[in-house]
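User: Teach me something about this protein's shape.
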Amino acid sequence: MADRKPLKVLPDGGGDSTGLSEFRTGDTIGVANGGTGLTTVATSNILTGNGTSALSAEAGLTFDGSTLTLAGNQVINDGYGMVIGGSTQLTTSVVAELQVYGAGSHDSAISISRFEAGSDHGHIYFLKSRNATAGSVAIVQDNDNLGAVHFMGDNGATYNSEAATVRAQIDGSPSSTSMPGRLVFQTTATGAVSPTERMRIHSTGLIQTGGGGTAPVTMNTGLNARNDAGLTIMQDGHDDEILTFKSSDVAHGMTDVTDTNTYARFYKRHGSYGGLLIEALMDPGETSPLILTSTGANPDDTRSTAGKGMAHFDLFKTNGTGRTSLGGTENLVTFADANTTRFIFAADGTGHADVAWTTYSDTRLKKNIEPVPYGLDEVLQLEPKVFDKHGGSFSEAGEVVLEGNGKRQIGFLAQDVRALMPELVDEVDDSKSFYSLSDGKLAAVLVRAIQELNAKLEAN
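Assistant: First, the predicted structure itself:
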């Protein structure tokens, strides 16, 4: 059709055509401009001429008065475009050669549908080649852009304002057997005129959030050989907050510490050596910024080194490429007041306080108050001992298993004291727990014994 031109023609009426635009089989057509070529026209055919005297009815090009039907491949030459829904090509960041626009959802939409008794779907393909000749090949390179979807907005003056972009790029070394790619997501901030990268998904599955190819936080399972179905957060060399919780309701004012609307944060304990610092922050006027709760169905009442609590802290120290238990008097847990340590729990099972351990002893908390029934007789029966005190647990057979960490001590044997003054020894299931002795409560018995001894001295 490249050498043919549309002509205005008039039927001779032999086929009962009724007007200029209607042609029926049997009509012969004369060229209105004086040409001599004649042809027979099928229903709805469009005629084209060759520039001299010939006319042809195009079987693949028909028009029935409302619908133009094209059969075969259609080519729109470079520099020309197609506008659907309007008559003018609009300018955004470029003048696109294919445009669809309208005033409603139906006339400003593109639909790609596939009708098949199978699971496949419709497709949109973006192609990038480094060869400047269409149909020729030249391999793409790392970081090449393959395609992008741009979201534009009317800024009141032009249509050239970009709010967001999703871009596909080469992410590695491509070849005929490998085409590594990544997706880059960009949004435009308030007050800005161009989008900034916010997230990228690499060819490895690694997810980076923030900005640029070295975003401060990266997430995916590929970073962690021990994590095949979870979340790993990589902070690279950054030492600031890696996980932060904020709320518009919070304004604690501690801006020397962090943002005023931050109520919890996680970050490295030490920039070079690692560790984790967890901090909770709260507005003035409320107490307990950090509360840890635990709920379970089977609390343990074992009193041995095998006992577990509803909250269980298990602490280790490094040992080459592994870890081991702390030993001796090394500290397990410390509690500090503004970096001044007040309480220490050590690996040998001892607890230490900067000032004292105290318990409530308010009269208002006590009922059924009676004089201590024990005194000089029971004290004289006590047998102070010196011994090696071990940590221990129970085997599955119920036998006592000592840890072998004996420490020389003096004191009493709980079973002996229990036989004399059972109130001083906690009752337990001795098939899985050890008896505990409240040594401090012996003071009341000793005072009673002294009083009885004094009474005897005064009586003599």
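Now, about its shape. The helical segments are 376-381, 414-420, 442-459. Residues 1-10, 17-28, 30-36 have pLDDT under 50 and may be disordered. If you'd like, I can walk through any region in more detail.
User: That's plenty for now, thanks!
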